[in-house]
Specification:
The complex is a heterodimer. Chain A has 4 helices and 4 strands, in the order E-H-E-H-E-H-E-H. Chain A is α/β, with parallel strands linked by helices. Chain A has one domain: Rossmann fold (3-Layer(aba) Sandwich). In chain A, strand 1, helix 1 and strand 2 form a beta-alpha-beta unit. By secondary structure, chain B is an alpha/beta fold. Chain B has 26 helices and 51 strands. In chain B, a hairpin with a 7-residue loop joins strand 18 and strand 19. In chain B, helix 20 packs parallel to helix 21. Classes of the chains: A alpha/beta, B alpha/beta. The interface between A and B is large, with 54 and 57 residues.
């Protein structure tokens, strides 16, 4: 299992967020943010995928189980998908993941879904800021499986 | 024209234009002879630190092209060379090239630099603008191609003192060279090449600022040129990117830029605008602030801020409003040395209202203009080309690239000052024109690249090689690169890890190749910039080393790390480590993937039948390809039908009629006029477009040239009084002798109507020149007329500056208004009154006008959104097409096989539209010349044993690539149709279908390692 950064007295808690970016829109948008030197928190760990439709709900759970504090899935705007409808596939799955997360006792705010186009560097930075804020508010992820008798999380 | 054509092209000058033209031609089946005067290709771009308006690192974006050009089998590069003689005619030229002795054998030199280390002679380094020293044995810059040293015979001790007398003086380099590459007896040689066409792009030289003694250049140490400033900023510059004054190494806290040094100056016969200096000065000011660890105060002294290019105005506004760069509209009288022994310089200037001021600066940067180089002038003379009065080559009207000689084309600053995208566009346009001339001979002289047989690595122990790039200071300035290297060494499968100053340079490629065989590496990871720009470069290196191109991954620790966490070096380093780890995990689990080849339909579809579309269509048809030209209007010609004359006095009606005639009669062009498009499907090589009439067109590439629209003003009584008209309407009224304009005495032109506003935050580029042209027309027709032009900045860039000057000379009155106090048009009884606050008088003035001409903005096309959805192409915030790269891919979309030209890309004048249209046709021609389309093969694949034939994959696949074979009860992927999105893989319930390069196992393992 990966390590979790836990809030200490001196150090502000900094979440680690797995970010699935589609190659054609969001990854390009993230590059554009870089070219424009638009600063955003160093919280995301990017996994480049061809399309947001490639994201299996399993990945979100895996990420959570492995110590990520949050997951960001970002694809093309509705109608703009390079593969015609992959982002709709992703959106359908995303709705399911949210309810599943609630079911296993994880705050649904830990996962975010966004549309960022190749021309939206500024928006990408805003998305990361927003996700980071939401996850920071929730604090460290204690893992998927909670021990029922009130003990520590199973990390 | 010669009957006996030759399928090769001579390119003179190996800057970005020469490199782009060479690659375009070599890729489309022509042999290229690339002649470069200096010892390395690259031109001016390697000297620049960053490029506007994206702040991309200049070297980083150029480097892949340098490498690609350098290693292209069909580009023969001759450095230290120049053309000395040409004979023949279009289609068949004989060219004599003289190559000066380099004294170092390119075949043997390894670029190790031992000779330079041993060489005792130090001279001023031209590449660093004389700010640093180099040896007599030298390489221009570290990423140079050829990656080899050369000996400067004018300064070498042996060459100057020993050789003639037969004495063995010095020769330290010979002793130092382990490769035995140094040959001091090498002689200049002359040889002949036969080519069918020539492309000339010898570039420019910068204005010699010491010619204007009032700026103090050469006398005051703290006065430097803008190019020197670029070298100060550059990580590979004389001070390793530390922003210091060259003479005392003090960090400047207050820097000034003086614009128009050597430009817009009639006294020295340079009354043209160099077009690039406003933007580079803003860029330098912004980068200086970003670069320095102490606050830097930056001020730009200017006459008019000229930022008319795509996204330039936003860049200017950002500098002014967010970055705190000061802009002072002024006239600079002189620069003197400060009297306080600080080494500073004082600028004495007058502001717009006539106030005289003086201010002291640590450093004064002169924004020097562009002039034709000496070799450009010689070249033009030798080829007997028409040149203009400034010495730049004169192009044929509305041709974009044609010189006065058939078969000889020009690109870049050879024909006038130009920025990088315009230069690249012209280069592709020239390549397209040469290709059209020689299309019968395509493929006759080229050879095909052969790769070593692919090593079989399946089942081998994984040995990953990791290369972490500093990217000069772009990454290394933020991320602790050595610690990332050390970290990588601790990770599973990593057999070797090291850092590179520039991982994309030629020598880094050679070193990666060597390490693959030495260290028996079978997976490669590069942590550097974006795979979107650099992955193909590294994959090519893998192939050359005998590794499958997919045994590779990149971590983007620049665009998505060091550049966006500039103030958090520790966190950025942690992130860089994590991203590198993820890439290592993915690469280590990667298996070889074989490419898939599909057929190429050699037909082009051009959408939009205006000047851009028709020009592209003719160029492609001349290149030998079938073209479908679709125009939804009932007539061809687009908005150009409404223009009477072009910016250089061309008869637009005749020009448009000529184009219509050409497209109507060309055997390769099929017209579809009066019909729109219903739907588009497919991809590079195999598109199908359905027209509204049901007709289906199959094509391999698409060119989108749908133009733009004129802004309908809501202001200045437009639409309420017919004496208020737009520029196009006024042009028409003049052409039709409308009494409204023919009898008018008082004319007022109002600039920036709907441009440079909150709604349209860009400059429409053409309107300043257009208004000046119209103003000149009415003033010349009726010298008694009172003509006023109300403007914010006069943006008559390039040679149009002459028109602006003439307009002022013959009495046209220019009144500047500010953004916050726009003119007011009102009606008193039946009189139109324009009220404007004059900046010099500082009081409102009223002008009774008979005609008010509004410079209405050029807006993005209405159909852009539709095309964006059909072709999966992005638009920018204003609705114009967004190109794959603003600098180096100005006509390509990121979607393969789709190209753009004309107003739909951004506002531009007719000459520029033509050049871009030819460029798009040139780029499309490169794609069409391929026999087949190669796709990476990163497709879905099925594990038959797990598949239950449930059909979910088939249902979810939008490419209709997956079907369930009901006999064998298993899903089958059609590789030709699969686009590799992976929706099937993420939907499969039993994990039977996965995606090459992005398998479930890879992603899960990456997540496990988070």
């Amino acid at each position: 299992m990966g390590e979790i950064q836990v809030e200490t007295e001196n150090k502000k808690y900094e979440p680690k967020i797995a970010a699935f970016l589609c190659n054609w829109c969001s990854y390009a948008g993230a590059d554009l943010a870089g070219v424009g030197r638009i600063q955003y928190p160093a919280t995301i760990r990017t996994i480049r995928v061809p399309c947001s439709g490639r994201i299996n709900p399993l990945y979100v759970l895996k990420a959570m189980a492995n110590g990520a504090d949050g997951v960001l899935v970002s694809g093309c705007h509705p109608g703009d998908c390079h593969y015609i409808s992959g982002n709709y596939v992703a959106r359908r799955k995303f709705a399911l993941i949210k309810s599943l997360l609630n079911h296993v006792g994880l705050e649904e705010d830990r996962i975010s879904f966004s549309w960022v186009s190749a021309a939206e560097g500024g928006r990408f930075a805003e998305v990361v800021k927003g996700v980071t804020e939401r996850v920071s508010t929730l604090g460290p992820n204690n893992g998927i499986f909670k021990v029922v008798d009130g003990g520590a999380a199973d990390e | 024209m010669s009957q006996n054509k030759i399928g090769s092209v001579l390119i003179v000058g190996a800057g970005i234009a020469g490199i782009q033209a060479a690659l375009d031609l070599a890729e489309s089946g022509y042999l290229v002879h690339l002649v470069e005067e200096s010892s390395a290709i690259g031109g001016t771009m390697p000297m620049l630190d960053k490029t506007f308006p994206t702040n991309d690192c200049s070297m980083c974006i150029l480097s892949p092209k340098l490498v690609e050009c350098g290693r292209h089998l069909n580009v023969r590069t001759y450095t230290n060379s120049q053309v000395v003689k040409t004979e023949g005619e279009a289609g068949n030229f004989k060219v004599t090239i003289k190559q000066k002795a380099r004294y170092i054998d390119l075949e043997k030199c390894t670029g190790c630099g031992a000779c330079a280390e041993a060489c005792p002679v130090k001279v001023d380094d031209e590449f660093n603008q004389g700010l640093g020293k180099r040896k007599a044995a030298f390489k221009q810059y570290s990423q140079a191609f050829p990656n080899a040293y050369g000996i400067d015979e004018k300064n070498c001790l042996y060459q100057t003192r020993g050789k003639a007398k037969g004495k063995d003086i010095c020769l330290k380099c010979v002793k130092a060279c382990q490769a035995g590459a140094i040959d001091h007896q090498m002689e200049d040689k002359e040889f002949e090449v036969e080519v069918g066409s020539m492309i000339l792009n010898p570039g420019f030289k910068i204005f010699d600022a010491s010619r204007l003694d009032y700026y103090g250049y050469g006398k005051i140490k703290s006065v430097i040129t803008s190019l020197e400033f670029e070298r100060l900023l550059s990580a590979s510059g004389p001070f390793d990117g530390h922003l210091v004054r060259p003479f005392d190494q003090k960090e400047p806290q207050k820097i000034a830029w003086i614009q128009c040094v050597g430009s817009r100056n009639a006294k020295i016969n340079n009354n043209y605008c160099s077009g690039v200096c406003c933007m580079y000065a803003i860029k330098e000011a912004v980068i200086a602030k970003e670069h320095s660890h102490i606050p830097v105060d930056t001020t730009i002294f200017y006459m008019d801020m000229r930022t008319p290019g795509k996204d330039f105005e936003k860049y200017y506004n950002n500098a002014k409003n967010n970055q705190g760069v000061n802009f002072i509209r002024s006239r600079v009288y002189e620069v003197t040395e400060a009297k306080d022994d600080s080494g500073d310089a004082c600028i004495r200037y007058s502001t717009e209202d006539g106030k005289i001021c003086e201010d002291q600066f640590d450093l004064v940067v002169l924004s020097v203009g562009l002039e034709p180089g000496d070799s450009s002038k010689e070249l033009a003379k030798m080829l007997d080309l028409k040149v203009n009065k400034f010495g730049f080559a004169e192009l044929e009207p509305l041709s974009g690239v044609n010189t006065s000689r058939a078969g000889v084309f020009a690109a870049g600053a050879f024909s006038g000052p130009r920025d990088i995208p315009e230069t690249v566009m012209q280069a592709s346009a020239a390549a397209g024109a040469a290709s059209a001339l020689l299309s019968d001979e395509r493929g006759t002289l080229v050879s095909e690249k052969e790769y070593p047989p692919e090593l079989d690595v399946v089942g081998d122990v994984i040995r990953t090689g990791v290369f972490i790039c500093h990217c000069g200071v772009n990454i290394g300035g933020v991320v602790d690169v050595p610690s990332v290297v050390e970290y990588a060494k601790t990770l599973p499968t990593v057999a070797y890890a090291t850092d590179k100053i520039y991982a994309c340079s030629q020598d880094a490629q050679a070193s990666i190749k060597a390490l693959i065989s030495e260290q028996k590496l079978n997976r490669i990871v590069v942590s550097s910039c974006s795979p979107r720009t650099h992955e193909p470069l590294f994959q090519e290196t893998l192939k050359e080393a005998g590794l499958n191109a997919h045994l590779f991954d990149m971590a983007n620790i620049r665009d998505q790390c060091s550049w966006v966490h500039m103030h958090e070096p520790e966190k950025a380093t942690e992130k860089a480590k994590d991203l590198t780890k993820l890439a290592i995990v993915r690469a280590s689990m990667q298996q070889p993937v074989q490419p898939i080849f599909m057929s190429m339909n050699h037909t082009a579809l051009v959408i939009g039948g205006g000047v851009a579309g028709m020009t592209s269509a003719v160029s492609l048809a001349d290149q030998g390809y079938e073209v479908h030209l679709v125009e939804k209007d009932n007539a061809l010609g687009g908005v150009a039908r409404r223009f009477s004359t072009g910016f250089r006095g061309e008869d637009m009606k005749a020009f448009v009629a000529g184009l219509i005639d050409q497209v109507s009669n060309h055997p390769n062009i099929k017209l579809h006029v009066g019909v729109g498009i219903k739907d588009v499907g497919g991809f590079l090589g195999n598109f199908t477009t359905t027209l509204e009439n049901g007709e289906q067109l199959a094509h391999g590439v698409a060119l989108l040239t749908i133009g733009g629209q004129e802004y309908k003003p809501k202001e200045y009584l437009y639409g309420q009084d017919d004496r208020v008209m737009t520029q196009i309407e006024m042009d028409e009224a003049l052409y039709n002798h409308d009494p409204k304009v023919d009898n008018a005495k008082n004319f007022v032109f109002i600039q920036c109507v709907g441009s440079r506003s909150d709604e349209n935050p860009y400059c429409s580029r053409t309107c300043c020149t257009k208004s000046v042209k119209l103003a000149l027309k009415v003033k010349k027709k009726n010298p008694g007329a009172n003509v006023f032009v109300l403007y914010r900045d006069m943006r008559t860039y390039g040679y149009y500056e002459e028109d602006y000057e003439e307009a002022r000379r013959i009495g046209i009155i220019f009144v500047r208004y500010s953004e916050n106090a726009k003119p007011v048009v009102s009606k008193e009884a039946d009189t139109l009154v324009v009220t404007v606050t004059d900046h010099v008088l500082d009081r409102p003035i009223e002008i009774e006008s008979d005609v008010v001409c509004l410079a209405a903005a050029i807006k993005a096309p209405a159909d852009g959104k539709k095309l964006s959805k059909w072709f999966k192409i992005p638009l920018n915030a204003e609705g114009f097409f967004l190109e794959a790269h603003m600098k180096l891919r100005p006509v390509d979309f990121s979607t393969d096989g789709v190209f753009m030209a004309g107003i739909a890309h951004s506002p531009k004048n007719m000459e520029e539209v033509v050049a871009q249209a030819k460029a798009a046709a040139g780029r499309a021609g490169v794609a069409l010349s391929q026999d087949q389309v190669e796709s990476a093969g990163l497709n879905a694949f099925v594990n038959k044993r797990k598949c239950t034939a449930c059909g979910t994959c088939e249902a979810v696949c939008s490419a209709k690539a997956v079907t369930v074979d009901m006999v064998n009860r298993v899903a089958v992927v059609n590789d030709a149709l699969c686009k590799g999105c992976g929706a099937c893989a993420s939907s499969c319930r039993c994990g039977a279908i996965s995606l090459r390069g992005c398998t479930n196992e890879q992603i899960v393992e990456m997540l496990n390692s988070l």
